[in-house]
Every structure is written in structure tokens, then in C-alpha cells.
Amino acid sequence: MLKKPFIIVRGGGDLATGTIHRLWSAGFPVLVLETEHPAAIRRQVAICEAVYEGSATVEGMEAVLIKDVTEAEKVIGAGKVPLLVDPDGAAIAALKPDVVVDAILAKKNLGTTRNMAALTVGLGPGFTAGEDVDIVIETKRGHNLGRIIREGSAIPNTGIPGNIGGYAAERVIHAGAPGILYNVHKIGDIVEQGEKIAYIMNEDENARYSVTATIPGIIRGLIRDRYPVTKGFKIADIDPRKSELSNCFTISDKARCIAGSVLEVVCAFDTDNLS
Exposed, middle or buried: residue 147 (CB in 10 Å: 0-12, 13-18, 19+)? Predict the structure, then answer.
């Protein structure tokens, strides 16, 4: 039998991975649900990559792709994190977890409801505590990052990335055209402003569009090679702090802050339910 409380996390991107890693480190059994084609930018610290590779390891935590829910307990027993392709969350009804954490970070609720578990937690905007989830965690950088909201919602999405090294919107790169993305550089490479980091092939237009670095720095995030993108799709993230290469391969401060708040509410729930 799985140790209680059993937790299902929806989403395996980089911020979700921070939460999953914290819960796993604290000894909680966790199952992760993902989509068929996840599009993480910070792939080196996102366990959703297991969908493509079969497994993914972040800071000593290994996530393993499973075919169905019957494999989950065995993987958890081996000290790993099972990851299932289940965008609709069918496994939630089947397994009846004690806690559901929606860490999809879609800026809107994609189907999580309070009746899915005894404790439901939503990360970021799109949820209202006391209505569609029990708890909301603030995900916007700043004074309130990680704040536990028991009534109301997180700050609405502004569309402006957080400031890192003096850069905000400039450090995030979006596709200028639809097509298939081909990487020229990789995560961890140092680039100069204007340097080509990838290109997009659009067969319908028989055209090739260059993707260039908007600022000088380290490529902290870059979507998978040959991933199909639409115009405006987020495809890369550059960190202007060239001396901090290791940041590309470790969980971010933002993810750790959010994770700490999730662990706090899960531990409080665990204590309350064991007393």
C-alpha cells in the first residue's frame, strides 16, 4: 500500500518539477500526469521530458514513463516518480488520491475541481481558492511569490516575464512564424545578441525563418528540436548572467519557493488528517 497522503500532480514542466522534487524529497508518493506532447522550455529541469525519452532525472530524482496506473506503485516503491500521459486526468478518478496539485501553469483551469481529492491545490492564476480548488499558490515573481491563498485568486497573468539580470520581456523569445523548429544551439550555450540559435521551417510557405538571441547571455531554455510551433509560441529563454551556467541544470529559486508552499499545505493537511 502507498504511504499516505498519495499525491497526483498535473503537469511536469520546470515549475511543476520543483514542486514534485520537494514532495518526493519529503517522502510523499507522487504520480505525475502529462500531455502527449509537452513543450517545456527549461527541458534540463523538467521531468515531462520523460514522455519523449522514457525517463528524466532532475537533481537526483528520476521520473519514469509508465503505460498505465497499474505500474505506478512499483515505480514509487523503487524510489522513483511515475509519469503517465493523461491530459484529462482520468487516473485521478481511478486512483482517488488524497491530494491533487494542478501545476500545469496554463494561466487558466483546464479541468481541476475540488471534488477530485480531499485537498486540491492550484498554482498561479486561473484558480479561485474555495471554489474550484482549496488552495492557490502565487506564482508571480515579487513580494507575494509563494504566498498561500486560502480565499481568492492569484495575481492575473500580465504576460510579462519576471526580471532577471535587468531583463524581463527581452529575455524570452517567441516564434516569429509557424513551422518546425530546428535548434542550432543547445541549452547552456553562451550567445551574443543577434546570434542565430534556431530556425523555423514552414513547408507551406517554403520559407525558413531565423530565430536569433534577443540579448547576450546563456541559453537557459530552448524547446525540443523539431518541435512544431505556432506563431507567438514561446521557444527560448536567455539568462543574461553568463557566469551562472549551472542555473540551466538546477531547479530555479522561483520553483523552490512555490514548492515550499505546496509542501507546507500538504504537511498541514497530513497532520490534520492523522490527528
Answer: middle
Whether the Cβ atoms of residue 215 and residue 167 lie closer than 8 Å to each other:
yes
Q: Which domains does the chain have, with CATH numbers?
A: 7-157+253-274 (3.40.50), 169-240 (2.40.50.100)
**Long-range residue pairs from 165-171, CB within 8 A, at least 24 positions apart, any chain:** 165/217, 165/239, 165/240, 165/241, 166/240, 167/215, 167/238, 167/240, 170/214, 170/215, 171/214, 171/215, 171/217, 171/237, 171/238, 171/239, 171/240
Instruction: Report, as an integer, the average pLDDT of 11-18.
Output: 98
Q: 3-class DSSP state for residue 156?
A: coil
* Segment 130-159, tens digit of pLDDT: 999 999 999 999 999 999 999 999 999 877
pLDDT at 5 over 50: yes
Sheet containing strand 217-222, strands side by side:
172-174, 234-239, 217-222, 190-191
Question: Can you tell me the distance from the alpha carbon of 244 to that of 217, in angstroms, rounded to the nearest whole number?
Answer: 10
* Distance, CA of 127 to CA of 101 (rounded, Å): 12
Q: What is the mean pLDDT of residues 170-189?
A: 95
